[in-house]
Amino acid sequence: QVQLVESGGGLVQPGGSLRLSCAASGSILSFNTMGWYRQAPGKQRELVATITTAGSTNFADSVKGRFTISRDNAKNTVYLQMNSLKPEDTAVYYCNVNQWRWGRKEDYWGQGTQVTVSS
Length: 119
Known about the structure:
By secondary structure, the chain is mostly beta strands. Helix content is 0%, strand content 58%. A hairpin with a 4-residue loop joins strand 5 and strand 6 (57-59).
């Protein structure tokens, strides 16, 4: 099992910035993909950004140029720097780790952290 602990959510004005962190512990493998997803009220959970152990990244079109994702492999921690925040970025943000073990995919989720963008 892998445990994920998120931090950094909160209330911010439009145009502001927030940084989310997610620390993974437990049975985490050397090669994995860490990322962030979000779910707004009444909507499905959607990809925000992911990053592999090697540093390859993937972003949703809606956040490209505003959000950056990074990770510290030694600490098994992933970060999401969110700049130029918009009200439509308001959602619960979930940390995710997925990895392959013995041919089977493992998917782990954090408890979620609320991000509210409002004046």
